[in-house]
Known about the structure:
This protein has 327 residues and is of the alpha/beta class. It contains ten helices and 14 strands. The strands form four sheets. The chain has a seven-stranded parallel sheet with strand order 3-2-1-4-5-6-11, sandwiched between helices.
Amino acid sequence: MKVLITGGAGYIGSHAAHALIKSGYKVVVVDDLSQGHKELLPLEAEFYRCDIGNIAEIRGVFKRTQVDSILHFAGLVSVSDSVTDPLSYYQTNFSKAANFLSVALDCGVTHFVFSSTAAVYGTPKEIPVKETSALNPESPYGASKLMFERLLQDVAKSSKLKFIILRYFNVAGAHSSGEIGQISDSATHLIKRAVEAGCGKRNSIEVYGTDYPTKDGTGVRDYIHVEDLAEAHVLALKYLKSGGESDIFNCGYGSGYSVKEVLAMVEKVSGQKLNVINSARRDGDIASIVADSSKIISKLGWRPRFTALSDICNSSFAWEKKYLSRK
């Protein structure tokens, strides 16, 4: 049971690597370390430093490792950055990923779990959002992810490939062991930036938009703990290996919190009053999105454990303090 994880030294990929090893899988990680950190990897993982766009090196990894399954995390993830640099997002999230998939198929890979995003929905016409909801991405990030989703679906129709697409909502938190979490000097995720402010790493925290049509004027998101998301990947892979058919699942909790509610929770957890700066909306951001995750719960038996906002913020803050103390 050997699994290749692209971007496995990144935030979510590393949590998935730990979860897979705990479940008895052998893990091979490919990461160029442009955003990932080798220190987050399990000691048991077999590691190769290379870019998924380097076809020769990737082909060599497949030949050496003989994997038959892939968890694909490698990619660019910032909505706002994708608006200012769309070409990089299409190149990385689609073109490189398509070439990587081609090599994987040539090397006999039959199971593929893809790290997608709720950004493929754009501004939803219904909340909570179902997997069957309209797809209308409003950023190059969401569009590039949707393009690869469609490629996977088309390839699966003409090959032996079986896939699971997991559409993440807003991922946050850190491992309950306290040993791994998000490392980034240029984080764009709200909770990460907020706990950095709570720890004194940032002087302030910006709120992008206070005039949205929401309960308090700030954006509402469905936050999911990274450990629960990692477990969803384990279940997805087990499902495919047991003969399950290709499918798409939302990954969220079905409850939304506004930016102001998140900041209030971080203040409570950290014991610090945050210096909040209200700024204009960012291009590509939407007002509100919340998941309907009933499908993954019923079909894969997913049972999230860290569903309270306090769980997510507490683990994020604890990790941030611990990580800053090491530097």
